[in-house]
Amino acid sequence: MRNLLKKIALLTVMAVCAGFSACSDDDVEEPGPGPQRVAIGSYTFDGTEHDICYGVYDSNDSYYNFLFAPTAQGETHHTVIMLSIGRYFEGQTMQVTEREANFDYIFSYDDPFFYYAPEFALKGGTISVKDNGDGNFTVKMEDIVLPNKKSFSLSFEGTLPNVYDTVQ
Asked: What are the sequence ranges of the domains in the chain?
């Protein structure tokens, strides 16, 4: 008799536990679609091409500053490309090996696996920036050799919002 009561008590506890676990909310809302990714340019890192879907710029008396990412505005940017270039190079093609990193240009690339800090000079390639007016730019980085010998290139032509116009 005792064994029968123990079995009934055990079955009752199991049924109650199963009932609690079965009572989860079935009306969980699925997340809606994220921000729309529209390619505005492209970059190639170590032989793999990626779309640029986000970009902003800023400029002052000395530099043009650009930030590009393969994710759309509103998404978390896990990969970021930053480029600053002296305004005196506007409209010219600059050989990076003939210029001083962190003075004539500043370049940084950051993704979940690689980080290229601005304090390390690029080992080869060219950079050109053309200001077409009204926030419209042509930015090209061609045949870039990163400090660890990986290849990089970037191509963008279009209108970018000023970073201060995007701050909410």
From this structure: 54-159
